[in-house]
Structures are given as structure tokens and as C-alpha cells.
Input
Amino acid sequence: MRLSELSERGGVATATIKYYLREGLLPAGRRVSATQAEYGEEHLRRLRLIRALTQVGRVPVATARDVLAAIDDESDQFERLGAAVYALPHGPDPDEADPLTERASRCVEELVAELGWHDECASPPHRMLVSSVAALMRLGYPCGPRELLPYGRAAAVLAETDVALVAESFEPGMTRIEAAVALTVLYEPVLLSLRRLAHTEVSRRRFASEGPPSTGSGAVPAEGAGRGGG
Amino acid sequence: MRLSELSERGGVATATIKYYLREGLLPAGRRVSATQAEYGEEHLRRLRLIRALTQVGRVPVATARDVLAAIDDESDQFERLGAAVYALPHGPDPDEADPLTERASRCVEELVAELGWHDECASPPHRMLVSSVAALMRLGYPCGPRELLPYGRAAAVLAETDVALVAESFEPGMTRIEAAVALTVLYEPVLLSLRRLAHTEVSRRRFASEGPPSTGSGAVPAEGAGRGGG
Output
């Protein structure tokens, strides 16, 4: 297909596609004349992945290029998966000068051992976890290995679901690494929004059982009140 | 305590504290002279919450002010909880002109009904979920109610854990709403980093069972290989 068709089918302006081509996020098309190139389905899929990374995952363009480079790398598949996921943004690094970082590190090591995971302390998600735990400690929130264990167990269940979906979602032209990166980035907002919805649901039930709601406020429609167990 | 002590104990520069005071994120101290004010433990706790929201949760200062205003509001507790959590950033709104938004909305409604939740379509987490599902549909990833149900169930388990932690983590001067907002924001990076760590773990096991690793690479130390079931 020509650039105009790629633009239309991908829902991305031609100027933006040219920018991605210049920045090396999208491989060049097959040149058919001095001014025109031909693009294939693999370009369309790659274009959609770029949009998903940058728009849904809010990954900066330079970072997206590193992630895509890791996907395209021909070396060992497991290492590529690590490289691609590790290239994703992962928040601020722990502050090594902060004494809480040391305490948070020990807590995370204990948690990971309890879960039976083989974790490398230098990995970006490990460092993200340490700085998040240090922040909780600073505020005095419960975040010892005992409190974090249910989150670790839930994460293990989610990861099994994710990996099974990756295995299911192979399509012609999609590599497993591409699927893994997309699932990591694209299912994060799904998970966070579902957790927030569940918060509302669980709080509603707790508040309802603790005392009568303010009568006549109309904020919680009565017709919905009995469906919780259905 | 004086401003200097608040700065030292909170780990925040006095200029930054003055900025929070001017912007209304932090309530004014009790004036003791023309140039000095006295601050209490509640100021210290509020200061730490502001830092957690803006640094760990990467919430913009103007948004943090709305969240804190919702926390301080004296009206009905359940509504305040909604207002405070809803004031948090929740990503791009769904594109109403996109036909996939309609499909994604139906999918989310079916999922929520299946989970037995009482959800309002206008809520920010609902809209965030619809736009995330539409993005998955656009890329051709599996995201029907059947595929999303395990995520919804995991979110329900997490929300129960969260709400139990909120109940446990009451401290003098901390309101339930404050605890709920902090837990929503502060446990999100914990959860996402644990999921990414679990991805590495699950992929490692799957890849290991599919074929021998490239010998002598040294990337996966052999001494850790047997601990998975422990």
C-alpha cells in the first residue's frame, strides 16, 4: 500500500508517519519510484504498536524506539523479552542516599524469596518496587513482606493470565516479544482502572454495612443495591 | 514546630513548602509572630502525602490540590471517597467518534455485570477502562469480557486487600479518605512492578520448558534454577 493508505488504515497523519520513519521507529518501505514507497501489513501493525506504546502507554518516542529495537534484535528470545520490557519507562530510581532505600531493599528481597521468584536486584521493575516501598515506609503505610505478599500472589496470577493471552494472541506477522511488550503496556491501564472500580465497589459495601446511608441523597440508586451477589 | 523543622523532618526544601502553602495544598500554620508560624504533626503528614502524590504518583500539583480538597471536604464520607479518587489522573478519555469506543463500552458493561459490580458509566475509571479496551481492540488483542474476567477477579481480590490495609493503617490524625487515596496512588507502582517481575518469572519458566537455553551464556545462573517450587 502507499503512504496515504497506510495513513488512512492506521489512523495516523502522513506527517506523523514520516516522523516515525525519520526517527527509525518504523522501517522504510520498499522504494517503487523516486518519490514513492510501498508499505506492507507489517508496517501497519508496527504503526499501531507505536501508537499504542506512545498514546496508551504514554511511552516517550525515544523510549519507544529502544523498545522496538529490542523487539527487532535477532539474539536470544528470552534476553530480547527482558531487553524490550526493561526499556519501558519504570519510574524514578530509588534514592541510594535515603536510609529507607536499604530497608525497602531488604523487604523486597524477603518478599521475592517468599514468592519463590528468581529476581535480579538490578532489574528496572525491582528498582521501581524498592522506590515504591520506600515511599510507603516514609508515609508510615503498612508495607512489610507480610502485607505485600497478597499483591505478589495477585501479580503471579495476572502474569500467568498475561502469558496465556500472549500465547493465544499470535497472529501472522506478530512475534511473541511484540505481543509481550504490548500486553505489558496495554493491560496496565486495564488493570489499574479495574482496581479503582473494585475500590468503589468494595468501599460501597463496607460503608453500607457500617451504618445507614444519608436518606434521600439519591447518590446510590436503590434499584442496584441487591445485585452484588448475582 | 517551625518551618525549618518541618522542612527537615519532611525532607522538603522550605521554598517548596512555601510554594505548597501559597498554592493551598498545605494549610497555613498558626501565626506566632509577624514573620513566624508554628506547624503541627498534621502539617508533616500532609506534606508527606503531597510528596507521595506528586513524586510517586506523578500527580500534577493542580490535581493534587483537587484531591486534597476532596479529602478535606466535610460532606458525606462515601461521596468524598469518590471525589478524591476521581480527582486523580486517569489517562485519556475515550474517543467518542471512534466506532471501537461503542464496542469497547458494551464489552466493559458486560464485564462489570458479570463481576456483579454497580458501576457508573460516567466515572473516570470506567472511561479509562473503555479507552484501554478500545486500544486493545484496535491492535487486535484479545479483550472480550471472557478474556478480561480474570483481570476483574484479580482486581476484586486486590481491592479487598487494599481496603483491609486502609482499615489497619489508621493512625492518629489520618482520615480514612486520606488512607484510601494514598493506597490507590502508592500501591499502583507496587502492583505494576510486581506484575512485571512476575512476567519475567513466568516467561523464564515457559521458555525453559520449551527448549534448552543457549549454553554458556551465563545470563540465568544455574544455582537459582531449582528454587521455583519452594
Summary: DSSP finds nine helices and two strands in chain B. Strands of chain B lie at 30-31, 37-38.
